[in-house]
Each structure stands twice: as structure tokens, then as C-alpha cells.
Amino acid sequence: MTSTEKHLSTPRERQPGEGEPGEGEPGTAPATGAPGDFDFLAGSWDGRHRRLREALAGCEEWDEFVSTTTCWSAFDGAANVDEVVITDRGFSGLTVRLLDPVARTWSLWWVNSKTGRMDPPPVTGSFADGVGRFYCDQLWEGRPIRCRYTWSEITPTSARWDQAFSVDDGRTWETNWITRFTRRP
């Protein structure tokens, strides 16, 4: 198994009490958001995506596809925007990230080119120990869920993003989308 395959191996649902060091829900640790937190993402990237074909359905089949992403910072690092182009799937996306300097939290908004609107609610959170975790409560196919975005394994030339859903208020998570980013030359 290559190192890339190891990182993209099928994640399993976490069990109660499991987690990564420093992992927690909003409110369990002081928010640490600061200008420049997303500066690592500025530039052009290739993305390799794995997305569960059906989230929260016991599905173990993954859809794999690629993307290109262009990202830039604004407001002296207190804002960040990226455009991801997924040609194989016929759509693009836009992420708008805004720092609330008083609360020290980031709000991340997603826009799908197929709808042309910001999908509420934003995920909110901050970075701790090199890992960014962002949460929101939302509906998925009419069902209330907790959503988590995680940015991790950040280096000058690579990063990992994943999305996970919880139906039990964050006690367990199903990771349903993983993207490995590699900086373009």
C-alpha cells in the first residue's frame, strides 16, 4: 500500500470515547482563530477526492474523482476564498472563509455552482495543534445531523480535508468525504 493509499484507506466510524488528541466539540476548548490560519491554502492545488456514494446509509462504496483548486487570502489573512473545479462531475464549488476576530472563530460557507447560493449554515471553529475542526448542525435528507470539517496533515505542499456526519450529537462520526490536496508547481 502506498502512502497515498494509506491516507485514503476507508475510514471507520469512531466509537464513543475515541478521537484524536485535542479533538473536541466547540466550547470544549478556547477558540484560537487568527488571521493567516488558512494562508497555507493560498495557491493552486490538485485534489484527489473519495466520497461515499451514500452518506448515513451503511454504504461502503466510494466514488473517486479529481479536482483543481485555486485559493487566495484577503483582509490580511482574515478571509480566504477557494474555487474548486470538478470537471468530471460537471460542477464547481466556492468556499468563503471569514474570521470573527472577537469570537476568534472561522465561519466556512460553501457555494455549489449548480445552485449559486451559500448553503447555510456555515461550519464554524478554529485550529488547535495544527488541526482545524469546524462544526454545524444541519439537515441531511430531512434528518438532523452534526457536520464536521477537518483540515489536517498540513505541509507546504499537501493537506487533507474531510467531512464527517454524526446522528448522535457527535458521539460517533461517519467520514463521508476525504480530499488529499497536492500543491501544483
Question: What is the percent of helical residues?
Answer: under 10%
Structural class: mainly beta
Q: Specify the number of helices.
A: 1
Along the chain, the helix and strand elements come as HEEEEEEEEEE
Spatial strand sequence of the major β-sheet? 1-2-3-4-5-6-7-8-9-10
CATH superfamily: Calycin beta-barrel core domain
How many individual β-strands? Answer: 10
Q: Tell me the CATH architecture.
A: Beta Barrel
Taken as a percent bin, the fraction of beta residues is over 45%
From the spread of the alpha carbons, the general shape counts as globular
Explain what you see.
With 185 residues, the protein is mainly β. The protein has a single domain, classed as Lipocalin, CATH 2.40.128.20. Helices cover 3% and strands 54% of the residues. It is built from one helix and ten strands; from the N terminus they run αββββββββββ. It has one helix spanning 3-7; strands at 43-52, 62-74, 79-86, 91-100, 105-112, 118-128, 131-140, 143-152, 158-166, 174-183. A ten-stranded antiparallel beta barrel has the order 1-2-3-4-5-6-7-8-9-10. The protein is globular and about 40 Å long. Residues 1-24 have low confidence and may be disordered.
What layout of secondary structure does this protein have?
Elements: H1 3-7, E1 43-52, E2 62-74, E3 79-86, E4 91-100, E5 105-112, E6 118-128, E7 131-140, E8 143-152, E9 158-166, E10 174-183
Antiparallel strand pairs: 1-2, 1-10, 2-3, 3-4, 4-5, 5-6, 6-7, 7-8, 8-9, 9-10
